[in-house]
Amino acid sequence: MQDLSFEEARDELALIVQSLEQGSQTLEQSLQLWERGEALAARCEEWLKGARERLERAREQQDSPADEE
Fold first, then answer.
1. DSSP letter, residue 2
2. In the chain, which end has fewer C-beta atoms inside a 10 angstrom radius, N or C?
3. How far apart, in whole angstroms, are the C-alpha atoms of residue 40 and residue 43?
4. Is the model's pTM score more than 0.70?
5. pLDDT one-digit tens code per residue, 3-40
6. Is the dihedral of CA 10, 11, 14, 20 positive or negative?
7. Which pLDDT score is estimated for 2?
8. What is the CA angle 63-47-28, rounded to 5?
9. Which helix (H) or strand (E) holds 54?
10. Residues 53, 61, 2, CA angle at the centre, nearest 5°?
11. Residue 52 has what pLDDT?
12. pLDDT in the model for residue 10
């Protein structure tokens, strides 16, 4: 799962949600899909957290005064 890009994880999660909404799986299949969906959602959150941190660092660097020589 760690090798999935944000877009790949998001797209797979969307497919899982769609599949669960259709309700055509057995209970066991639904549980497996749910568990996979939870893991994918967590992976997406990791990606988003990392992106937020990168943006914050970039803003801090932009806002800090340049070193005078």
1. T
2. C
3. 5
4. yes
5. 999 999 999 999 999 999 999 999 999 999 999 999 99
6. negative
7. 80
8. 160
9. helix 27-63
10. 25
11. 97
12. 97
